[in-house]
Amino acid sequence: MPLQSKAFQRWLHGVAPDASTADVCRIAGIKRTTLAQQLVRGKVAESTLVSISRGFHVNPVEALSTFDLYAELRGAPVPPTACELVSQIATIDLLRAVVERSEPGSAPAGNLSEPPHPTSVRNWVDAIDDGELRHRVSDTTGIAPQNFSAHLTANRLPPELAIATSRAAGVGPAGGLVAGGLITEAEAGWPANARQEALDNMSQSALVTLAGERLLALGKTLRRQEQDHERTERIWENLG
Amino acid sequence: MTAVLPWVTLVVCLAVTVARIPSALRGENRVVFYIFSLISLSIFISIEAPYLVLDGWLGGMNVGNLILRFLLYTTFFLMGIKIATAFGSPSAVRAIRGPVGLTVAAIVAVLTVYFFVITDTQGSSAGMSGLTWGPSLEAYAFMGRFYPGFVAACLVPAIWRTVVSAAPVLLRVASGLLLLGLCLLLLSQLFPLIPFSEAWLRVLINYSAAMSTCIGLAGIWFSKAYSRRKRRLSA
Fold this sequence. Notes:
The complex is a heterodimer of chains A (240) and B (235).
Chain A: E1 3-4, H1 5-15, H2 21-28, H3 32-41, E2 43-44, H4 46-55, H5 60-65, H6 82-87, H7 91-102, H8 120-128, H9 133-141, H10 145-153, H11 159-169, H12 175-179, H13 194-200, H14 204-239
Antiparallel strand pairs in A: 1-2
Helix pairs in contact in A: 2-4, 7-14, 9-11
Chain B: H1 5-25, H2 30-46, H3 48-57, H4 63-86, H5 90-97, H6 99-118, H7 135-163, H8 169-187, H9 199-234
Helix pairs in contact in B: 1-2, 1-9, 2-4, 4-5, 4-6, 4-7, 5-6, 5-7, 6-7, 7-8, 8-9
């Protein structure tokens, strides 16, 4: 459940006491109608809060942590595990790393792209899953396992579910928010080079195996997309 | 409302048919154009005023109704094959065009004519509602509902799979409308349970079925055009 609009307005008053709603929206780069609608419904999306925080140079994680729902974010950031860091490296960057290690200097070395990548959410959950994680999450939050799966497939992770998932896995609370694309890794307090270092620390075999797993999953997704595409085209070809 | 509904349905179907003329002239999916033409024609002669004129020319013994039945059988045969092919269901294509389907169609055709001949059908009236309804006329009406229902039953599973798939939203909505139309046809198998005093309900179901089938088919066409345009614009 997103943030209560009363608490949100209290927070907004603390951050920007003199700004009008129009100013807030302009500075945060959000639509006025969007904010108005969320306030009327009584529930403000976390992404709105994050945009406004960035606009007013407030750390979004600190902003979120002022709400009871996100109390776990208070205090010093919990450092991410190596698995979490690697899970937030895009598949294409992993493949580049494989090539670079096999034939050094043959590919131009680039910086890792910022998370989230196209399968961030699933990879993050897989990285922290001890085999029972999904059960525990659905027990504590009441989310049906197939709905949880649907989120993973769609590569989205509602912030509240992200928090519940990290709690159930016993990792830092901000990791899921990074994987879900709500906040950046810097905002979550991850050191700038952390992902690159985690990648460099992987053995050749671990890296190649992981890249292989990612490719296998990508292949499955692509095949499904191609089949869906073929089905659609056949309908259009016959009835369009 | 049930007096206006048939005309509205006719206008919608005619509009879609006219809109398909250019692509039919270009030779794209002519069968779809024929299907829309047949649906429009069927709806036209099912409406009271045109029906009475047409049947008057044919001797005023409801031969017009018999013609209407066969128009509908042809429409559903063509539509069934086309839709089953489109939605990727070889089993539905076989069920409609294979030995079973052709046998069903032949039996329905023969029995339709038989029940028509043994019934006293003097006196033009749309839907033959002005006649005295005996068992033979009931059986005749049953045949008229049964074949479209049979085709609809063959198509429902394949269309449902598309409605719940990850296809483009417009295509899913259009397929949903088509599915609704076919389900209404299945529902119409229960017409004998509707008392005569509630005849408006049959009219409502029949024309809603025709309307949503027609809009659904047109919507599939529209979703294709929309997606092509979007792709061109983004390219």
